Every structure is written in C-alpha cells, then in structure tokens.
UniProtKB/TrEMBL annotation:
The keyword Transferase applies. InterPro entries: Aminotrans_V_dom (IPR000192), Aminotrans_V_PyrdxlP_BS (IPR020578), PyrdxlP-dep_Trfase (IPR015424), PyrdxlP-dep_Trfase_major (IPR015421), PyrdxlP-dep_Trfase_small (IPR015422), SP_NH2Trfase/AEP_transaminase (IPR024169). Belongs to the class-V pyridoxal-phosphate-dependent aminotransferase family. GO terms for biological process: glycine biosynthetic process, by transamination of glyoxylate. Residues 29-329 form the Aminotransferase class V domain. This is Aspartate aminotransferase-like enzyme. Keywords: Aminotransferase, Pyridoxal phosphate, Transferase. Its cofactor is pyridoxal 5'-phosphate. GO terms for molecular function: alanine-glyoxylate transaminase activity; L-serine-pyruvate transaminase activity. The modification N6-(pyridoxal phosphate)lysine is found at K194. Substrate binds at R337. Coiled coil: none annotated.
Length: 383
C-alpha cells in the first residue's frame, strides 16, 4: 500500500469519525464547571432523546460502552437476586459475566450464535423463572450481526414478569430505529464509537421512571457508575466527574449531522448498506452467518469457504487497505465482520466489496470481476 495512514476502517467499532466532528473536537479546552460545559451537557442530553426514542434524560458517562453495561447491572441488581440474560453472542455473554460478577443469580438463555432470540424462546424460558428482577437483552449482537427483536421481547417480558427490561444498544442506537419508551425498555445504553461516529470514550444511559424506582431501592457498592449521581447532576446541568469534554464538542457536531440528515434517512441508509453488503457477499459465493430476517443494518458477518478461510480473507483485505474485524470466541477464524454504520455510505460499501473481490481472487478463488460490486449497485439503484 502506498499510503500507510490511508485505510478503509470497516470494523463494527470504532468507526470513522467525520472530519467535521474531528474539527469540533479540536476546540480549545474549557472548564468542566463552566457555563459552556453546562450548555453542552444539557443540550447533548436533550438532543440524544429522539435517537433513543425516549423522553427521559440521557445520562452521559465518560467510559467505554462496557461502563454503561456495568452501570446497568450494578445499579439494579443486588447479590443473590435473579436475572435472565438472553445470550446471542459475545456481548450477551458479557452482560451475563458482569451480572455474575456482581453476585446475581444468572439464568442464561443461550441461543446459537448467528440466530436471534425469539419471543417464544424467551417466553418459555421466563415461564419457569417468575422471580427475575431484570432481563438483559442485546439489540444488535455485534459479534454475529444479528438484530434481536427487542420490541417483541420487551412485550413478552412485560406480559410475564415485573422484571426490568435492560437493553444493550451499543451498535444499534443511531443506526437503527430505537423506540425506548414505546417498546417499554427500562434501561437503554450505548457507546460513542459505533453508529454515533465519535471516538471511543463516552457511554450513554437512558433510564425509565420504573427503573429509577428499582435503582433507589437497590443497594450495592458503586461510586463512579452510580446512576443517581449522574441523574441528580444532570438536573443541575453538569456531571459528577470531569466529562470527556472534547467528546462533548464532537457530540454536538454529530447531533447537528444527525438532525440535518434526519433519523428516518439515517435508518434507511443503514438498511440499504446492509442489503448492498449482503447482495455483494452472496454474489461472490461467500456464505453469510445470519438469515435476512434477523440481519442487522449495522454489521454483517461473513463465513469463509472450505478452501478459503475467513481469517485469510481478513488478512488479505488488510493488505489491500480495508480493515474488517475477526470473529469472537468460538467464531474466531470462522467469520469476518464488516461494519457499515455511522460515517459510512453506499460508495464505501462498493469500495469494500471491490476489495473483497480482489482479496478472494488473490487467495485463489474464482471471481467474476465486478460480481459483488454489480450486485450491490443493483440494490442501490433499484426502483
Ligand atoms: C462495542 C460493543 C460493546 C462494548 O463496548 P466497549 O466500548 O468496547 O466497552 C458492548 N456491546 C455491544 C453490542 C457492542 O457492540
């Protein structure tokens, strides 16, 4: 590659940061108790509400996405209490591990990786576990590219238990329609570096009134991630600790971009990029991990073939200048994952598919030139 610093970052997070956001982050530093910082905190929190589909405050934590997962657990569950975690991949597994670490009695509903958790499976799992305090779900399971039917799952949970519905939206919020209030989600969390087009470093948590009731009654050791302190401080237009101020500068620019494009257009763009990616991959004869019905608009997992394994393809793509992600845990070496979220457009998808044609060819595969690109262009331009 002629340019060492030039590559196409197509992993499912961190994702590319728009130049406009990068510029905004270069503003001179300000004090974290200044009026300007208060304005940023207040306005960013408010402007994030429609992205989550909520009228609740969106709390801003300085930390990676996992800090928000941990906050969702440590503020709602005390040792010995029962929780259910629907595990559809590595991130559901992480939720289960966090809950276990905080002493919860964890009931894992393990779903084969690559499949979604169905409402029926959850319903029968909950039937024998009426005492659960919270059910943890992953909206987009980034490790497999599955979009779980969170709306239907939340309905089942509400029908059969009093449990809180707690959802990891780290790779969905900002790229996929999210209706926290309408769907009955009690705690909805995300991170900055996926569909929200920021560098890693911020996490966001939205909490329902019902969840606040539970949080107030749940004692446990927590300090940095005590959500009540974030809530009380947000009322005063500030944060308990020094926030990632440069990230707030960037977040304001991201929110400008989101409002200019419009959420519906953003969601349509992500669906289009998913369909283009899947059509292109199929045209090359590479198997997809997930079925169309459960495919996520933000990330696509591709299997290797008998002759060409997924990690070889990933390495060859890197040589060409395209960065994709490997599989996690038992899918390592079996799949690679293409991120198509955030600052990504149809032309980026064509570029990646073109690189995939070349990578496949260089590894000895039979490629009809333009097959993947052409299939994706057909999807892009269909009337
Ligand atoms: C990326 C991701 C996380 C973890 O975020 P970190 O910022 O790495 O802590 C959690 N859940 C999902 C679904 C993710 O995609």
């Amino acid at each position: 590659m002629p340019f060492e610093e030039k590559f196409h970052l197509r992993i499912p997070g961190p994702t590319p940061v728009p130049p406009r956001v990068q510029h905004a982050m270069n503003r001179p530093m300000i004090g974290h108790r200044s009026a300007e910082c208060s304005r940023l905190v207040r306005q960013c929190s408010q402007r994030l509400q429609p992205v989550f589909g909520t009228r609740e405050n969106v709390l801003i934590i300085t930390g990676s996405g996992t800090s928000a997962l941990e906050a969702a657990v440590s503020n709602t569950v005390a040792p010995g209490e029962e929780v259910v975690v629907a595990v559809t991949g590595a991130f559901g597994d992480r939720f289960a591990k966090i809950a276990g670490r905080f002493g919860a009695q964890v009931h894992r509903l393990d779903i084969p990786w690559g499949e979604a958790c169905s409402p029926d499976a959850l319903k029968s799992f909950l039937a024998s576990r009426p005492r659960v305090k919270a059910v943890f779900l992953t909206h987009c399971e980034t490790s497999t590219g599955v979009l779980n039917p969170v709306q239907d799952l939340a309905t089942i949970i509400k029908e059969h238990t009093d449990a809180l519905v707690i959802v990891d939206g780290v790779s969905s919020v900002g790229g996929v329609a999210c209706e926290m209030d309408a769907w009955g989600i009690d705690i909805f969390v995300t991170g900055s570096q996926k569909a929200l087009m920021l560098p890693p470093g911020l996490a966001f948590v939205a909490v329902s009134p019902r969840a606040w009731g539970v949080i107030r009654q749940t004692e446990g050791p927590r300090f940095y991630l005590d959500l009540q302190t974030y809530h009380e401080d947000l009322e005063r237009e500030t944060t308990p600790f020094t926030p990632g101020i440069a990230h707030l500068f960037g977040l304001e620019a991201v929110l400008d971009m989101i409002e200019e494009e419009g959420l519906e257009n953003i969601f349509a763009r992500h669906r289009l990029m998913m369909e283009m990616t899947r059509a292109g991959v199929r045209a090359l004869g590479l198997p997809l991990l997930t079925e169309d019905a459960v495919a996520s608009p933000t990330v696509t997992a591709v299997r290797g073939t008998e002759n060409i394994d997924a990690s070889a393809l990933q390495k060859e793509l890197r040589r060409i200048g395209a960065v994709v992600a490997s599989g996690q845990q038992h899918l390592k070496g079996k799949i690679f994952r293409i991120g198509h979220m955030g600052y990504c457009d149809p032309l980026d998808v064509l570029t990646l598919l073109s690189a995939l044609e070349t990578a496949l060819h260089r590894l000895g595969g039979t490629v009809r030139w333009g097959a993947a690109v052409g299939a994706a262009e057909e999807v892009w331009n269909r009337v």
